[in-house]
Amino acid sequence: MTTQLPAPAARTARPPAVRPKAVRPKAVARAGLCAVLVANVAVVTALFLQAGPGVNALIAIGRLTGLYAALLMAFQLLLVARLPWLDRRLGMDRLTSWHRWTGFSLLWLLLTHFVFILFGYAQVSELSPVDELVLVTTTVEGVLRAVVALVLIAVVGGASARFARRRMAYETWHFIHLYTYLAVVLAFSHQVAVGTTFTASPSATAYWWGLWGVALGSVVLGRLVLPLWRNLRHRLRVSAVVPESDDVVSIHITGRDLDKLPARAGQFFLWRFLVKGRWWQANPFSLSAMPDGRTLRLTAKALGEGSASLRALAPGTRVFAEGPYGAFTALHRTRPDALLVAGGVGITPVRALLEELGGHLVVVYRVSRPQDAVLLDELRDLARARGAVLHVVTGPSNAPTPYGPPLGPGAIGSAVPDVRDRDVFVCGPPGMTGAVLRTMRELGVPKRQVHAERFSLAS
Fold it and tell me: What is the value of pTM for the model shown?
């Protein structure tokens, strides 16, 4: 039986709303990345023209596309470096999506570079393209490395295609993806060895060394140095393991100087629990309580072998955490009031946000069965304390109601008549999140007010 969304409740006393930022952090970060990319495209084009186009048009096009591919490869590294400033403003979901599409663009640029250079030099030497390829790979330094790099990137691109990704275990896909770093090193060494533009002038050489230094340095800083430094500083350990239901468990974590850890409600970490058989597995789980400077808490559902084994963790277990990550935070508020919509275990970051957000809040918690509503007692207590309205919606997604689908425009519009004047935070399984986003579009909620996190990493 479906629990329908009731009529809007009267507003009660609530925490004061925080004044939203005049300039959206997401817009600043997006504009900054675009400006950096456009400026570097202009520099690369100028360096290409300074060096001269080459002996024929085919070689000229090949060289230019190769330079753009090198620039895009460096930009790719910046997108996955997990730099805190970018991640807090754009979120790993968005950065990963951009990385994916930039990767396919990079593959096409590299293929274009390969084909035009090969046919251009074959035209000059009057050899067949196959004979020219054999000649340059066996006699010209760096060309064989470039061919290997192209093959590696093509393999990674194929593994990242949706049809292949769905049929591949995450660990397998991730292992294949690591070969991208080898391809980057091989491509850079090729550019150093035979890149005409690289050695055309001292300024060109300085530019390319600087570009690759910043890109690779960002990866080392964001994915190695910063996580190591934070874990050495905070010394995280499991303090308690609390079962919430038959298949949901909360892990409480303590450490040193947690008030200096820049974590916010709505964010997640990649958690490694340093016990035999698990230390190498990193699982992404959101904080299920607002960080208070003394403890951190995550709540996980048994969706796989890794998350199912959390119940067996012992207090005192050392923890290595990468993060915090995510832009699903109050940093992106645009309105004083908010609607929070959660599905299943996606309630964890929403429950944390309920603690932090000010203004009038409405929470819609969607589950298939009443017994699936984890942390429900906490949600009710928090809602009462903060003057928020809590709706728990259960039953099949296609169950008929007087308002249409449970999370459709009729139901949401009836329960939250002023939804267009609110921020909307949505977190849950991809199907539910997509349905809520469509509802927001149909209700006319401005896109800038909708903040979504697809809770699918842990699966």
Answer: 0.84
Of 3.40.50.300, 3.30.565.10, 3.40.50.80, 2.60.120.600, the CATH number of 330-454 is 3.40.50.80
Contact 256, 234 (CB under 8 A): yes
CA distance 256 to 352: 21
pLDDT per residue as tens digits for the range 131-188: 999 998 888 888 888 899 889 888 888 877 777 777 776 667 777 878 888 888 888 8
- Residues 150/142, Cβ–Cβ less than 8 Å: no
Q: Sign of the CA dihedral 372, 373, 375, 377? A: negative
Summarize pLDDT for 344-383 with one digit per residue, the tens.
889 999 999 999 999 999 999 999 888 888 899 999 999 9
In whole angstroms, what is the distance from residue 95 CA to residue 286 CA? 18
Alpha carbons 218 and 279: distance in angstroms, whole number: 25
Task: Return the amino acid letter for 81.
Answer: A
Check: CB of residue 18 under 8 Å from CB of residue 330: yes
Q: Which of 193, 209, 152 is nearest to 175 (CA)?
A: 152
Q: What is the pLDDT of residue 457?
A: 41
Q: What Å distances lie between residue 284 and 252, 301, 324, 343, CA to CA? A: 15, 12, 10, 17
From the options 2.40.30.10, 3.40.1130.10, 3.40.50.970, 2.40.170.20, give the CATH code of 233-325: 2.40.30.10
Per-residue model confidence (pLDDT) at position 173: 72
Does 233-325 match 330-454 in CATH topology? no
The more confident residue out of 64 and 176 is: 64
Which segments of 126-178 does DSSP mark as H helices, in order? 129-139, 143-160, 162-165, 170-177
